[in-house]
Amino acid sequence: MSDTELIAAARAAAEKAYAPYSDYPVGAALRFEDGAIVTGTNIENASYGLSLCAETLAVSKALAEGRRGGLQTVAVVGPVGKGGDAPITPCGRCRQTLNEIAQLGGTDPLILCVGANDVVEVRLSTLLPHSFGPAHLD
User: Which residues are catalytic?
Assistant: First the structure.
């Protein structure tokens, strides 16, 4: 699957968002080394702290499917026309969540931060320098 197709999968996930409070649907798509794609969308809750980000949901699904590493690329998309059309990046919590599954496989995935008209490509290690992960607990 190409990066363009991965971004399309993230956009399709965003269409299924449950975002009645922020009206800010987000979609994420994770590509693994075996070609598998796992998607997630943000799920809000009236008790705001219980809301889940798209990336966190996608990682949770991947782990529930038994995936323990192999993460290569992540596409993250937000709504066009809300809060500007600049590319969005994973929040701090999501960076840490992505780092967990990446460290399990020893990868440094490429993050595709998608905006209305452009895509910023950045490695997870750049978004989360000096990260903390499973290796620190050994």
Answer: 55
Distance of alpha carbon 107 from the chain centroid: 15
Q: Count the Cβ atoms, other than its own, within 10 Å of residue 79.
A: 19
Per-block mean pLDDT, blocks of 10 residues, the chain (138 long)? 96 97 96 97 96 97 96 95 85 96 96 95 97 86
- CATH of range 3-131; options 3.10.129.10, 3.40.109.10, 3.55.40.20, 3.40.140.10: 3.40.140.10
Side-by-side strand order, sheet with 71-77? 37-41, 27-32, 71-77, 110-114, 119-123
Name the 3-class secondary structure at 27: strand
What pLDDT does 136 receive? 85
